[in-house]
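Need residues for this backbone.
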């Protein structure tokens, strides 16, 4: 309502002057309008703060995971965060402290959306060693897929079935070898019994033991002349003695070049109590043992590799297969496995060669044919073939360890050994190079694939752990402190800036609180 009032000035003239006033109702209305406007501004700010809390948590967790172990990434293509931060003592509180520090480093300048991290709690986390190394296998497979072609896996797949058949055949061949030795021994006992009986009869009749012995020898020579064929010497005895020798001394050109490195397996992952995470590791569908083998083949060394950098062990792939303390032990155990595979493969080849089987039968007849027992003759024939396969396998293994190639299943034309010169062949260091076939690392891939997955994974992590300790100079480094995923719950706080009459967000002691949870993984 407006009132007009007349006033007289100094000159005696009148002028009109306006005076204003406002009613209580209008004043209350303005207060309500302003309160509503400020509440809307504050509501918009609260919504912004809620979104900012999510964004801050995302940035802070990403920044936390940005401090991954550099040596693991550089040398092995793996992304893991050291939960112990170099101390060797994993502790979730260290992760929480790092999150708080990340928020502090953002600064405390005042602005419209000012907020601070009040509390951070790591609710769950996954380590590289959890679920028998599931996270290690996952990242290893991903690294292999990003760097290698699919054809490498397909080549392995095509050989697996044949390899498994050869492995299962090994025990049968060993049993046949024992039967052959037993048959030869039985024939010897039979011959000795016959000789003793004949000598006793002749002694009773004439007493001329010396002359009869000479006649028996002449009879053998006459029998050989009638055959008209000179046969090789029976190899059973020589191969039986050869099998008792050190295999590496036989197959390596220079045993002095053998690595003398070793590690202490008493502290390996399989022999110590591991720190465990509390979040289920997600095993992806793409995790395949074939890709894990390709990863190991790409990043780990072996006997035929040239090493650019000093590693704790020179024969790392061999360690993954066997798990012994020293390079020498691992290589010898792997050599024995390969020798058994080559024996089985060569036996498949020799059983398809009628000429070699005929030669073995003639030798078996000459050795134990006097008994007239067909099962003994057949057992000795198989034994001669197995002895021949063993010598051939020695040559194959020598070729592989020298960097050559050997087909998984040979053709008869690729056979290298000769029964007439077995001992000379073994004593020679030279080998015939073959351009086709599988090299030593490809044979190791098959052995890696047939190794139990848990053992393979743990031994691989042993190698990584030992080498990273050398590369980084941190002896406290441990794979069961390497985090691959965490779930974090945080509480952010912010102070109100504008008047608000509408309840918004959660308040404690007059301040807003925003609780956020986020999971992050490499």
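Answer:
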């Amino acid at each position: 309502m407006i009132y007009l009032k007349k006033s007289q000035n100094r000159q005696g003239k009148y002028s009109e002057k306006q005076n204003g006033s406002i009613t209580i109702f209008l004043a209350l209305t303005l207060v309500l309008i302003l309160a509503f406007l400020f509440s809307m501004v504050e509501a918009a700010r609260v919504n912004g703060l809620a979104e900012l809390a999510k964004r801050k948590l995302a940035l802070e967790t990403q920044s936390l995971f940005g401090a991954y172990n550099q040596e693991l990434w550089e040398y092995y293509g793996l992304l893991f965060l050291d939960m112990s931060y170099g101390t060797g003592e994993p502790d979730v509180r260290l992760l929480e402290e790092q999150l708080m520090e990340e928020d502090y480093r953002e600064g405390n300048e005042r602005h419209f959306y000012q907020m601070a991290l009040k509390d951070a709690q790591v609710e769950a986390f996954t380590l590289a060693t959890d679920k028998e190394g599931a996270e290690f296998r996952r990242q290893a497979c991903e690294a292999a897929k990003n760097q290698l072609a699919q054809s490498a896996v397909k080549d392995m797949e095509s050989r697996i079935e044949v390899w498994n058949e050869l492995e299962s055949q090994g025990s049968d061949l060993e049993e046949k070898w024992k039967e052959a030795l037993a048959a030869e021994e039985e024939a010897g006992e039979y011959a000795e019994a016959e000789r003793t009986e004949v000598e006793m009869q002749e002694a009773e009749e004439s007493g001329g033991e010396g002359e009869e012995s000479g006649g028996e020898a002449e009879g053998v020579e006459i029998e050989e002349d009638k055959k008209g064929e000179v046969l090789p010497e029976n190899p059973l005895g020589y191969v039986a003695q050869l099998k008792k020798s050190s295999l590496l001394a036989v197959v390596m050109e220079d045993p002095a070049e053998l690595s003398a490195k070793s590690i202490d397996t008493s502290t390996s992952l399989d022999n110590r109590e591991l720190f465990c995470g509390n979040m289920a590791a997600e095993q992806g569908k793409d995790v395949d043992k074939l890709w894990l083998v390709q990863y190991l083949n790409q990043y780990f060394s072996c006997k035929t590799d040239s090493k650019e950098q000093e590693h704790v062990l020179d024969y790392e792939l061999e360690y993954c297969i066997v798990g012994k303390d020293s390079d020498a032990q691992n290589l010898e155990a792997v050599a024995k496995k390969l020798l058994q595979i080559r024996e089985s493969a060569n036996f498949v080849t020799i059983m398809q060669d009628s000429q070699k089987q005929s030669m073995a039968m003639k030798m078996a007849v000459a050795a134990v044919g006097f008994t007239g027992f067909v099962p003994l003759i057949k057992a000795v024939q198989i034994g001669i073939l197995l002895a021949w396969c063993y010598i051939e396998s020695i040559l194959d293994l020598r070729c592989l360890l020298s960097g050559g190639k050997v087909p998984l299943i040979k053709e008869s034309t690729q056979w290298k050994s000769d029964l007439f010169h077995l001992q000379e062949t073994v004593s020679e260091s030279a080998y015939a190079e073959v351009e086709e076939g599988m090299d030593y690392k490809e044979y190791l891939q098959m052995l890696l694939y047939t190794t139990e997955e848990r053992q393979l994974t743990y031994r691989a992590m042993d190698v990584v752990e030992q080498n990273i300790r050398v590369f980084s100079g941190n002896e406290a480094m441990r794979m069961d402190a390497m985090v691959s995923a965490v779930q974090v719950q945080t509480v952010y706080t912010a102070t109100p800036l504008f008047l608000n009459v509408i309840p918004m967000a959660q308040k404690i002691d007059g301040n807003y609180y925003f609780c956020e949870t986020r999971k992050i993984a490499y």
